[in-house]
Every structure is written in C-alpha cells, then in structure tokens.
Amino acid sequence: MCREIGDLRMNDITSEMILSVCEAIQNNENQATFVGASTRLYTEKVFSFAVARGLCDRNIAIDTRGELAPASSGNHLPAITKPDQFATLLNDMSNFEGASKITLEAMNLLPYVFVRSIDLRSMRWQDIDWDNKLWEFSPTKGEGREDMVSHLVVPLATQVIERLRRIKAITGHKEYVFASMRASSNSYISKATLVQIFHRLGYKDVQCAHGFRASAKTLLMEQSELRYSDIVTELQLGHRIKDTHGGAYNRLDEIDTRILMMQDWADYIDKLRDSV
Predict the structure, then answer these.
(1) Using an 8 Å Cβ cutoff, are 197 and 96 in contact?
(2) Residue 212 near residue 111, CB atoms below 8 Å
(3) Which of 188, 190, 206, 255 could pair covalently with 176 via S-S, beta carbons 3.0-4.6 A apart?
(4) Is the pLDDT of residue 139 over 50?
C-alpha cells in the first residue's frame, strides 16, 4: 500500500495506521481529494481477500468506515466559461507532455466531446460508427436516473475522427480506446490520472475534467458564432428533457443539428487554441 505499512504483516497493521495513511493522502495538495477515500476502500477489499484465504485474522479496515472526513468539494465543479481563458487552457493542454501518450490523447479529446470523465475513459472501439461518425453508448450516470438518458449519441467532428484514428494505432487491439497500458487486465485509465493532469497544469479549483460540460454548454449558447439552443445543448449533454407535449426526447432527436453543432464546436475550440 505504502512505505508506512507496506512491509508489515497484515496482522500487525492497525485501523489507526490505515486511517492515518488515508488521511495523509486526502490532505495532500498534490492528490485528488477522493484518492484518500478510494485508498481506504481498496484496503478494506485487500483485507477481505486475505481473511477469506486465511492470510490474516480480521478485516480491521472495516473499523475505519465513516472515520475519514469527507472531501470538501461542495456542489460546484470548476469550469472556465470565458473564451480568452478557455483558449489559454486549451493551449496549455495541447503543449503539456507530462503524461503517457494515451492519457494526453484522452485529455485533449475531452473538450471536443464534453462527456463525463468516466464515459470518455471507458470509451470502447465497438461503440464507434466510423461511417456515420457517431459514438453511441450508455452513460454510466444514466443508469436508473430519471434526469439522464440511458443511451447517448455523440456526433464526432472530423478532428475527433482524426484523433481516434491515431489512437487506434496504439490501442486498436484492445477493448477500450483509452486502455491502461500498465495494467495486465483489460482496463482503462483511472479517474485520478486525468485529475492529476489539471493539477499539474495549475488548474486545480479552476478547471476539472467534468467542467468541460459546463464550459461547452455556456460557450455554445453565448458565443455569437455558435448560439445553439438550450434544448440542443441539453440533449447533447445527455440530460433527459420533455418536449412541448410532455414526452421525452429520444437519443436521435435534433441529431442533424447536433452533428452540425459538434463540428462547429470543434472548429471553434481549434480556433481558440490557435489564437494563443
């Protein structure tokens, strides 16, 4: 787990030790706030595995449940909505080299599609319709939620298709577009991987991966060269909304407008980035 307890026998590790390590991780400014809680949960799973196989006497990590102070994130997720600041962000992202090739590709693709981080990271090659330039999938947050669609179609701009073809040369033999190159199992890059990039870029509490959804919606509706409607942007965000007759829009409603919007958006952010 870490050097503080990594060399100890499992029966010698106490709940106080685990809590101390997790608190240190959560309070570390260079770590995402959720990593401490994730570490505690993973530790509990490791102990559960060990107990089931007779490798230790008791799962003492259970005693730390509810003891780790929740991360203070509130409801606000940081997002840049001013064109000049967004241009600088895009330029900084484009020039950043402090991560793996796949991680950098994921980071730079995110502004174009503005889906949730988990949906981008778990993007599968089989869900891409290359002929029609569409990506259709089931959003993770859409499961069982009345305010979210269960299926989302994302039109892929020409620039996005070009990026995906480059990535396919690297991970095309795997299930996931942004496959983890370190893991031996079939998995994709972690949430923390993207979080840390924005911290390293100096955008902690200024812009996060999820924030591109707010950035895109605001700019798409407010900028004179775009001016797309609330309904079209909401549909593209995967939000479930009602039509004038009270019925729900389906995943392909306004698709022609959304295809045009996503290409306009890609051209717009390219122009912004190149203006810096």
Answers:
(1) yes
(2) yes
(3) 188
(4) yes
